[in-house]
Each structure stands twice: as structure tokens, then as C-alpha cells.
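We were asked to recover a plausible sequence for a given structure. The inputs and outputs are reproduced exactly as logged, with field labels preserved.

PROBLEM: sequence recovery
POSITIONS: 129
GIVEN STRUCTURE:
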């Protein structure tokens, strides 16, 4: 089994990690830890993001016996599209991501990455608040 964990600093990521580790151990799954990034970011910012993801993978997943990969995606897609496309490319079985509370008007005006992923993903999506 493969689990994709979408990293976003603005959500309750500690809870996302805890759920992902439990599910990965329970189903003997590997974890793809990803973060989407726009191409206009500097090389230093991308390097820092990559370091942070690899550190999270090592400290929170690998140290608990969960194998996997960590990638910063810089493909010029909207975050939701990037997550869904990566999930299809890697044939993941489940996506886990954090969500933040937004009003209905906020979702209508600004869209919602989680909403896009839930509607477009080929696999189940577990959202953590």
C-alpha cells in the first residue's frame, strides 16, 4: 500500500503526521511525503523546503519504521492538481492531508485545495482538521 501525505505548514500537520504513521504501520504502507511549490520560488527557498521534508520523513516516519520518499513538486500546477497528478503517477492508495476551517464564501472566492483533491482523486482522501 502507498499513502501520499500532502504537507502544508498552514494546517494542523502534527495530527496529519500522527494519522499517517498509524495508518502506514497498520497497513504496512510506504509514505510519499510531498509539498507543492510554485516555480517562482528561489533556489534557497526550494532547498529549505526539501531539507525540511527530508527531515520530517527521517524524524517522524523512518524513525518509527515507516519507509517512503519526500519530494517538493515544482511543476507549475495549482496545488490540488499537483497532488492529484502525483497520486495518479505513483499509483497511491490513499491521500492524507490537513484542512483549515473556511467559510462557504471563503471557499467560493478562493477555492479549496482539499475540495479539489477530494473531488478529483482516484483514491480515498482522508482529511484531518
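RECOVERED SEQUENCE:
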Amino acid at each position: 500500500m502507498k499513502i501520499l501525505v500532502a504537507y502544508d505548514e498552514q494546517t494542523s500537520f502534527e495530527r496529519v503526521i500522527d494519522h499517517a504513521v498509524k495508518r502506514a504501520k497498520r497497513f504496512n504502507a510506504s509514505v510519499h511525503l510531498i509539498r507543492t511549490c510554485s516555480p517562482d520560488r528561489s533556489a534557497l527557498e526550494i532547498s529549505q523546503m526539501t531539507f525540511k521534508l527530508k527531515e520530517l520523513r527521517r524524524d517522524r516516519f523512518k524513525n518509527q519504521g515507516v519507509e517512503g520518499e519526500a519530494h517538493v513538486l515544482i511543476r507549475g500546477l495549482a496545488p490540488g492538481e499537483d497532488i492529484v497528478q502525483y497520486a495518479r503517477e505513483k499509483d497511491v492508495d490513499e491521500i492524507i492531508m490537513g484542512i483549515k476551517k473556511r467559510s462557504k464564501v471563503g471557499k467560493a472566492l478562493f477555492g479549496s485545495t482539499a475540495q479539489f483533491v477530494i473531488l478529483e482523486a482516484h483514491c480515498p482522501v482522508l482529511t484531518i482538521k
